Amino acid sequence: MPKSKSDQLRTLADNWSPPVIAEIGEIGHPLICVASTYTFHAPFFESELLPRFLGLKFDETEGVRPFVVEREQALASTSVCVLVDADHFDPAQTTLRWDQLSVRVPGGAQHSKVVILLWERCARLIVASANITRPGYRKNREIAGIIDFYDHENSPPRKLLVDAIGFMDAAKGFVRASDAAKNRLQSALRDVGTRVRSWRRMPTDFRPLARPRVTFVGGLPDQRGRVSQSPLGRLVELWGTRRAAEVTVMTPFVAELSHSIKSVVQKLLEIPIARDAIGCLVVPGHASEIRERMVVGIPRTYLESWCSSWGSTADQVRTYVVPLCRDGEPLANRDLHAKGILLEGDGAAMLLCGSSNFSQHGMGVGVANIEANLCYLDDPDVKRDRLRLHERLPVDWEEDLCESPIWPETADQIEDERHGTDRPLPAAFLWGIYDQVTATLAVIVDPSSSFPRKWFLHWPGERQIDAAPLAQHTQFPYPPSSGRIILELPASLRGANIAGLRLEWLDDDGIVKSAVLPVYIESGEHLRPLEEFRLLSADGILECLLSGREPAELVDKLERLDVSTPQKGIMRELDSLRAVDTSSYLIYRTRRFGAALSSMGERLLRTVQTREAFGYRLRQDPIGPRMLTEALVREWKENAADAATLLFNLSEIKLVLAHVARRIGDKQLAPLLRKTVEEIDGHCAQVSAGFTPPPNLARYLESVSAESGRLLQTA
Known about the structure:
By secondary structure, this protein is an alpha+beta fold. It folds into four domains: 12-197, Endonuclease, Chain A, CATH 3.30.870; 213-413, Endonuclease, Chain A (2-Layer Sandwich), CATH 3.30.870; 429-526, Immunoglobulin-like (Sandwich), CATH 2.60.40; 531-714, no CATH class. Helices cover 33% and strands 20% of the residues. The longest helix is centred in the last third of the chain and has 22 residues, at 643-664. It is globular. The termini are far apart. Residues 1-9 and 563-580 have low confidence and may be disordered.
C-alpha cells in the first residue's frame, strides 16, 4: 500500500456553515436540518452547530440575550430534528423550537451519524463516524463525507441524496415520540425531497462507468430487530467479482465475543480474494511501558478471529496502531473513532466509511443497528484534490505501522462508543407533552401496559433524595384511563424550557432504575414569547418596525446602552427643532403607523416562503401582524381608547396583508394570510358591536374590506 502523511487536524463543525458554490451564487435562507447521532450533547449542538447552519450574526460569548433572541427567531422559520439513541437522550436542551427525537431499536442502537442540511438553493449531506458531541466534532480522529447538491449540471446526482432521505424515512419507524413531533420529522423529510426533485438540471444518477462514484449504504433492522439492510452485505455486492489484493479494516470497537467477530470476518471474506492478498488492521492504541511497543485498544479476540478466518498468524497481520497523539499535533489525546473498510485490487479501490464498527451490529451480520455509510469507488492511483482514496483515512501509513503490538484480553471503549447508563423506559411510560403558555405538562402513558410497583418523576438533574417528586405511584395507584398524567407547574416555572423528565422505578427484582422521559410540544404556538417581548406595547412594536432592525439587534442595542446616555426628554430640550412634541398629533401618528406597516409588509415579503416560516411571521413574531393587532385591541380595552382610530388601524393591517398575499402569489401561503385577516375581522366586529363609525369611516372600512377580499381572492 502506498504511504502518506495525510492526517491533519480538521473541524467538522465548519461544514455546518452555508457553502459557497460558484455555479448558483447565493444559496438562500436555511430551511431544514435533519440529523442522527448515537451519543449527543444538546448544549454543543445549540451553541456551535445550529448557529452555523442558521447563519446567526450574534455569538453566545458576546451576548447571551441577543444570541438567544436571534436563535429563537431563526429556529421559528426552520425545521430542525435530531434523532438520538434513546439511551443518550439529552434533557439539557435549552429551547423547544427544535425536536430531539428518541429512537429505540430492539436489540440494537440508533448508531447512524447523518446530517441533511437544506438551504433554499442547496442541500448538503454529511455522513460521518462522528457523533454530535464535542469529542466527536473537536477531538476524535473521525472520517466524514460531505457532499453538496444544487440545481446545476455539475452537482452530484440526485439519487445519492434521495437514498439518504429514504434511509432517514425508514429510521423514523423506530422513533419514540409524540405524533406531532413525528409529523414534523416526516414533513421535513418530505419537503427536502420535494425541493431536491424540483432541481431539474442536476444529474439523476452516476453514469454506469463513472469514477469516482458514491453509494449511500445504510444498515437497518426490521421492527423485530432482524437485519433488513446489511452494510457489509451491500459492500460485498458493490465490489462484485473483482479480486481484492489488499483488504484493510479500520475500527475503534468490536464485540468481545470471538464467535461474533469471526462471523463478521467470514462475511467480509465472501469477496473474491487474490491468492497473495494482504489483510491489514487499523486500530486505536497507546504507548506501553515497554519501549517502542504499542498497546492496542481492542481485545485480543479480534486478532485471533481475524487470523483464524484468514489462515494466518499474528505476525503475518499488518497492523497499524493509531496513537492518541503524534509529534507536531496539539497536546491533546485524540481517540481513533473513524471506521472504514478499504478494498484494493483489479484496478479499483473501494472505501466503505461512516458509522459502522466492524461488529455484528455495525455490519448487519445476524443482528443490526441503524447505521449509515458512504461507499466510494475510484481508481486506486488517481488523486482527487491531491489525495488518493486510501489517503483519506486518518492514518499515517509510515509511522503507524506496528511490528509487535500488544493485544490485551479486554479494552475500555472510548466515550463516544459507550452504552448509555440509563435503562429503557417501562412500556407504560411513553413521553411528555408540554404547553409553555399554560404551564401544563401531560405525561402520556399506555393504560394497557403494566406499571412499575413504584415510580417517581423528577426534574432531569434531581434524584429522589434531593427533592420531592413531581408525581409518583401513590398519587396514581391506577393507570389513568385518559392515558394522561397532568402536572400543573408552579407559576415560577411558567416559560421554562422542559425537554425531559427523569423517571425512577423499581423493577421486578427490586432494583432502582432510571431513564429520561422525552418531552415535546404540539406546535410552536404552545411556546411563550421571549421575556423581552412579552406584553410588548403597540407603540413598542411600531418602534421596532420603524427602526428597520431585527429584534436581536434591538436587544443588543439595549444591552450596550450606557446608563449615562442622555434621555430623549433632555435631548428634546436642547434641540430647537424638537422643542414642540408632535408625537400626539393625528397626522404624525397616522404617518408613523403607515411607515411601520410598510416596514412590516417588506419584512413579510423577505420571509422565506415556507409554511413554517410564514406561519411564525404572521402569528408568533413579536413584531408581526397578529401581535400588533392584539396589542392594539388590548390597549383599547384597557385605556378606553378611540374606537374609530382602532378600526382604521386594523383595516390598514388587513390591507397590507392582502397586498402581501397578491405579491407572493403562493397557493400554499395564501390560506395563512387569509386566516390572519379573518382574525382581524373578528376583532373589528367586536369593536363595532358597541360603536357606530361615522359615515366617512364606514365607507372607508367597507372599501378596504372589498379591496382586501379581491386581493386575497386573486392570490
